[in-house]
Amino acid sequence: MICAMQMNTGGRFYQPELDGLRFIAFLLVFIHNSPINSSNPLLNALHEYGWIGVDLFFCLSAFLITKLLVMEHRQTGEISVRNFYFRRALRILPLYFIYTSIAVYYIIQTIGWDATLLKHLLGITTFTYDFVYLCLTYKTFSVFFHLWTISYEEQFYAVIPWIARKLIYVSEKTVWGWLIVACIIGSLIRASFIYLKVPHPAIYMLPFTHFEAILGGLAAGFGLFDKFLSGTKGWILLAPGLIGNAIIFLLPNTYEIGWNLMITYPMVGIGMLFIVLAMSKRDGNVFAKALGFKPLVYLGKISFGLYLFHLICISMVFQFPGGRLENHAIHNLLAPIISLILTIVLSALSYQWIEIPFLKLRERFGSIKSRPV
Q1: Could you list the residue range(s) of the whole structural domain that residue 208 is in?
Q2: Does the predicted TM-score (pTM) go above 0.90?
Q3: Distance, CA of 76 to CA of 4 (rounded, Å)
Q4: Cis peptide, bond prior to residue 201, ω within 30 of zero
């Protein structure tokens, strides 16, 4: 049977360093989505490849969700699918649909009604936005586009408790076998998309062509690396994680459809896996301590709001009536900073007044307590 890592004292599993890491994931995505025009090569590189923050989110989410399910079984002898869905609904749905309503109002006020909005809302409300966007419309509303990742994760959440209930009783060798089969099938599908030159962003958005990060998090959550890495220091694990992601910056970007993508996605998935494993070690390494800095931890706590609100904040700031400054260097510097500050303020308010009440309610449906609110 798969074994789990021990809980923190008090029956709660919580590692604040992972919240700090969650904020780093958001910051990468924010830089990627900001209209940055800079002469700084590092900033430009982060702008081009900051999408890797999405993979860090995927890996972290899969790791934590799976680990909590395994711990629930270890403590209670079962995994309650009903309670799992209640917890996910209380965590995601309230702020998600509030943001969707705000975004619809913003779109109508700025560009007017568009018939394709109904197609977008169909995908957003059914958590199939990645498929709906690719199959029904390629028209993009900037304040909606990032919501495909929420659909992607919800599709994972729909199946993970059932997968965990099956795999919890089998050997580690069997779990490895199923994960390898999943990787092979996904790789073959991705290769067929490349061969057929299916245009971007299909490979990037679909769960069966962009899967390594979430499968890596699932494997880590099942504890498949625990024995092998038990004596390894966190900073040693961090090195291949950073190197793996650095290699991504040397490869063509994801919008260039070619066989390089057969390297890009596995590399970023493995890189994010090592980073998550490194930060979950809690062995006092300096990097984990840095991510445990209280302001970073708080920003990680509100990261769901940060992620939801950042595109609408960027849009509002860059479309502000004083937007004629956009050709000036000062605007290129100030606009992203103002967008980030506005995003943090809105997310802090929404966390306090919307998320916390539902997070407190969510704890009634969990035998293993996670992050304190």
Answers
A1: 16-365
A2: yes
A3: 13
A4: yes
